[in-house]
Write a structure and sequence with these properties.
Elements: H1 2-24, E1 32-44, H2 45-49, E2 54-56, E3 60-73, E4 78-94, E5 96-97, H3 98-107, E6 109-131, E7 138-163, E8 173-197, E9 202-211, E10 214-223
Antiparallel strand pairs: 1-3, 1-10, 2-5, 3-4, 4-6, 6-7, 7-8, 8-9, 9-10
Length: 224
Amino acid sequence: MKLRIVICAVFLLFASTAAFGQEQETTWPHKLSLETGCGSYQVPGFILGLDRSITQHPTRLNGFNCNVRLGFDLSRRWTLGVQAFNAMAAGNGSWARTDSDGQLATDGVSGSTAGRTNGKLVGAAFNFGETFLLRARVHPFWRAEFGVGKLDVNFRGEFNGCSAEDVGCSFPIIEPAEDRVTRIIPVFGGESGIQIDITRNFQLRMGPYWNTGFGGNFSARYRF
């Protein structure tokens, strides 16, 4: 009789342990996460200079960047995902293109153009990352991304110059000036920072990043 009681107790313990393990197993919908965030954005002038047709440009553009990410947990540490982003920045300064310089020389006019440059980068990318200190509520993390984006740069300003025949520039030439450059470019970026677990399903993330420009990003992440 005692032997039967012991056997039944062991069986019930094993069954409850197995059921608990099945409940804890994460199914694929619960591995999905949705994250959205915004932050500051600054584009160094040399980024515009990578287009060889642009010979003069502002030293930097300042603005903001917003993004949306859909992630999938490969494990508790590693995450794979896709993202869409929209970055906008603007700056004041000089502007010149190789074709405009040639046209001024042909017309026998010399001078300079200055005004406001607005840049917009819209695109999508794949990303993967790693999270550390899994048992803590605050985790360091990093992620890398690669994708493609559309860069749209618009300039509006004013040309100030003189005719080559007007030696003393007695009759200055002042005219409105506009220009636009659109390119499809590869995107390589990265981000690092800290993740704070508010609840099991809701986290906050913050840290510096690079995405054809740099800044600080603050985002909220929800795990299904």
